[in-house]
Amino acid sequence: MSELPFVEVRRLRRVFDVSKPWLNRMLEREQKQYLTAVDDVSFTIRRGETFALVGESGSGKSTVARMVVGLLPPSAGEVVIDGVPINDPARAAEVRALRRRIQMIFQDPYASLNPRWRVERIIAEPIRAFHLSASAREVRERVGELLTLVGLHPADGAKFPHEFSGGQRQRIAIARALASQAEFIVCDEPTSALDVSVQAQILNLMRDLQDRFGLTYLFISHNLAVVRHMASRIGVMYLGRIVEIGGGRELFVKPQHPYTRMLLNAVPDIAMTGRLREAVQGEIPNPINPPSGCTFHPRCPFVFDRCRREVPPLEAGVACHAVAEGRIAAA
Amino acid sequence: MTQPVLSVRDLKVEFVTRRGVLKAIDGVSFDIAPGEVLGVVGESGAGKSVTGSAVIGLIEPPGRIAGGEIRLKGERIDNLPPEAMRRIRGKRIGMIFQDPLTSLNPLYTVGEQLVETIRTHLPLSAGQARRRAIDLLAEVGIPAPERRIDGYPHEFSGGMRQRVVIALALCAEPELVIADEPTTALDVSVQAQIITLIKRLCAERGTAVMLVTHDMGVIAETADRVAVMYSGRIAEIGPVRDVVKRPLHPYAVGLMGAIPSLEGQADRLVQIRGSMPRLSAIPPGCAFHPRCERAFARCSVDRPSPLDRDGRKVACHLYDEAQAEAAS
């Protein structure tokens, strides 16, 4: 059955306890405080597809990424990858087998590589951990192969991470992700720390590897242009919820949710020299005390009573009362 | 022709290290006219921030200005004694840095910092200075400035803090503002507000702006002219529309093509092979030649000097050749 989505995220929710320590709470007579970083997030990713989550800081996109790879247990909801729910203790053996097929690439290539290990050891770690090669010679050959694949030289394996530039380090991180023959790679802001020309190299490399190995990506970024370039489907997040989800083209050409419209209008873009922009109102509110109803309502130009009371459900790809009631004309 | 506010000629900045002298800036020249926004772009290590620091006289040892001159309204400022430079900084040249938290003192209220800066540079009483500070805060778009003026920096959000920094930079009515990555630490929706604000305030006052950033999108929307820097040199400088839409220098061409755009879907991004050379190993001739698809013999020997072409200046032998051909 090829219709079955490869990755399915169902009603994911994550709450963090951000209370002060017990003694302070007692002395200052404060309640416990909770921050809902992710609330009711659902999406699916087909095999070989790139799905992207975009949003500003604090929108919960990285928290979703961490839950999808299993680095963080969800407070509610589930993540099903290739038919296996990854947080189901009853299927631990299957989950362990699945682990090999899921890898992650992080934003900061300076922090994600062990500075005391040589590159060959970094890349060989998943091969050894999952017992994918029998002999040391095979491991070495495989590492050389992987380095060539990401555009480095096999001899680079003998070097330490500090001898490489940011872009080269990100290549090493990609080689490590591929080392276990991963099929699904979660990329959390993979190019945000890089210069534009290097970013172009890494994005092109990621696409080539996808074509070659049929990789599935979950791509997390705050950069709309990068997302547009990489993803076939996009989810826009705001304060822990997906406010709009759709195909890349539709979303950019005909954004529906007022937040998506605002975001697209706000991004400085090289194609738009000298144009006049509409002023964007306000900033993201504090997620500890989010606004009632639709969390975007204090900044929304189309706000009305219902938005302050009810959380809009995600219907036909948009979570907005005004759109559902047909009060906003299509862009 | 009106006199430029800032005029930089053949500026050279060096850093003396154990491994020899590193040339961070090597022969950079540009002018900024009153009310004009000059964008300075480049990737990390291109020397854009060092250029900004040189103009405000904040090159710290082991760095030093090794040559060239910097003139503010015709007056040389690169060789002024530190005390005289300190008086110019803040008064005639305002500064906006990337991280608003580090440019504000966390121990003083926003009002105290504004009043102090205003009174250092302008002959006003404490009451007048406070009045002026409130006006400025209102002008940069801080709601309820009468109340917020007594808040501490940590009580402001990132975007609001950057607004305070802009107010600080503009409080002494400077002739020139140097904005070094003013929006890089901010979210996109806030970024747009800050860009619009800087642009509007400087246009109203006729303040010249040097906008240093790695974000071409910000430059494309804000700047009048743009200088593309590479390895401490200016590769191309000209009106922003021309340079963005029809860049001439091969590096500028690569850079513009490497940026994913919201419009149009390129299947692959233009890729410039390799990466920027380290300062300790800048290639001879044109610094870009090892990465350039169109390099020829002369590029590795002879350093190109800026040529006038289509209303801009391009440092590339390709255009020199074309000129020679046209002449013959």
From TrEMBL, chain A:
GO terms for cellular component: plasma membrane. GO terms for molecular function: ATP binding; ATP hydrolysis activity. PROSITE patterns: ABC_TRANSPORTER_1, ABC_TRANSPORTER_2. Its main location: membrane. Keywords: ATP-binding, Nucleotide-binding, Transport. It is a peripheral membrane protein. It is found in: Cell inner membrane. One of its GO terms (biological process) is peptide transport. It comes from the Bacteria. Belongs to the ABC transporter superfamily. This is Peptide/nickel transport system ATP-binding protein. It comes from Chelatococcus composti.
Automatic annotation (TrEMBL), chain B:
It comes from the Bacteria. Gene3D superfamilies: P-loop containing nucleotide triphosphate hydrolases (3.40.50.300). GO terms for biological process: peptide transport; transmembrane transport. It holds the Pfam family ABC_tran. It is found in: Cell inner membrane. It is a peripheral membrane protein. SMART domains: AAA. GO terms for molecular function: ATP binding; ATP hydrolysis activity. The keyword Flavoprotein does not apply. Its main location: membrane. Keywords: ATP-binding, Cell membrane, Membrane, Nucleotide-binding, Transport. Residues 8-256 form the ABC transporter domain. The keyword Membrane applies. GO terms for cellular component: plasma membrane. Belongs to the ABC transporter superfamily. NCBIfam families: oligo_HPY. This is Peptide/nickel transport system ATP-binding protein.
